[in-house]
Amino acid sequence: MATIVFNEITKRYAGTEAPAVDNVSFEVPEGSTCMLVGTSGSGKTTLLRMVNRLIEPTSGAILLEGKNVLDENPIELRRRIGYVIQQVGLFPHMTIAENIRITADIAGGWDKQKINQRIDELMDLVGLPPSEYRKRFPRQLSGGQQQRVGLARALATDPAILLMDEPFGALDAITRARMQDELLRIQRDVHKTILFVSHDIEEAFKLGDQVAVMSQGKLIQLGTPVELLARPANEFVSKLVGADNIVRQLQYLPIDGTLDNRPEAVSSAHWGDVPTISNQATLFDALLKLLETNAPALAAEDPQSQQRTGYVTLSSINKEISQLRGEQSSRAESRI
Ligand SMILES: Nc1ncnc2c1ncn2[C@@H]1O[C@H](COP(=O)(O)OP(=O)(O)OP(=O)(O)O)[C@@H](O)[C@H]1O
């Protein structure tokens, strides 16, 4: 059970008044990705680094597999937890294979043949074919490729938990998107429990099963991207996640809230003819398909059973967005 449990965790640095992390409690379920977002200095890195004991908490507990990390040997603990940061820190005089091997060697318990096989597997996994890249040196790789080696190295001992602190922050937008896709693909295969600090809300929404929003050391809201967009806890979260950004709402909100059973746009004679769309699609997918097909409505279908669950039309999408905006502005008014 590689669940990470934060239990009333607080960190006060010596000589500072306000705590860097202030009584934070939440869980990252096994095999899921939790993104930590928030303004600069809100305590994200401090929280992350308390998991592998690079920083010690002032009070509270962090439990892994039900055990308090403070009861474990920090070196052993770090061998079981992958850690990826922005500054990859590869050894310049070692080849890529040797750079990956060194982590596996440190962790111990692997024979030579197994380690060699593992290096090849990892290089394939992060999209660096071993035949081409095994013998190269870090200076012969691009920044994005070095970042991939950093990820391969963190995965070398097959840790159940990965801590990632802005690992793609220094990459250009295209390489960053590629690395994010790579991580999603890897995660579909290997199901690590991932805690990931990001400054990029698009990245947080793309990668996160859950997003934890922090401000001034406190956990302000924890939720799925859809929950944060549809029901931000306060103005700060709303601004941070861009809850009033219509494009983002369309991109992330699922169509299941908009379904109409008998849209006027479809005459009863044409019920069977309208194009179909998965009922797990987003409003944006539906909008595109409505525009592309020029159809008055789309029939939403369960992809497994192929049963129709309702219809989406331009007016049902509009109604959903207007309703959300109405809810958000009345929430904002009630706070004034
Ligand atoms: N070693 C330290 N000693 C004293 N204060 C520290 C130390 N490290 C961090 N802090 C303070 O703790 C607070 C939280 O810092 P932290 O690095 O965890 O925030 P963050 O959310 O990761 O920030 P950023 O997004 O800018 O990286 C900040 O106010 C910071 O100045």
TrEMBL record:
It comes from the Bacteria. It holds the Pfam family ABC_tran. InterPro entries: AAA+_ATPase (IPR003593), ABC_transporter-like_ATP-bd (IPR003439), ABC_transporter-like_CS (IPR017871), CBS_dom_sf (IPR046342), P-loop_NTPase (IPR027417). SUPFAM superfamilies: CBS-domain pair, P-loop containing nucleoside triphosphate hydrolases. The keyword ATP-binding applies. One of its GO terms (molecular function) is ATP hydrolysis activity. It is an enzyme of class 7 (translocase). Its EC number is 7.6.2.9. PROSITE patterns: ABC_TRANSPORTER_1, ABC_TRANSPORTER_2. Residues 4-241 form the ABC transporter domain. Keywords: ATP-binding, Nucleotide-binding, Transport. Belongs to the ABC transporter superfamily. This is ABC-type quaternary amine transporter.
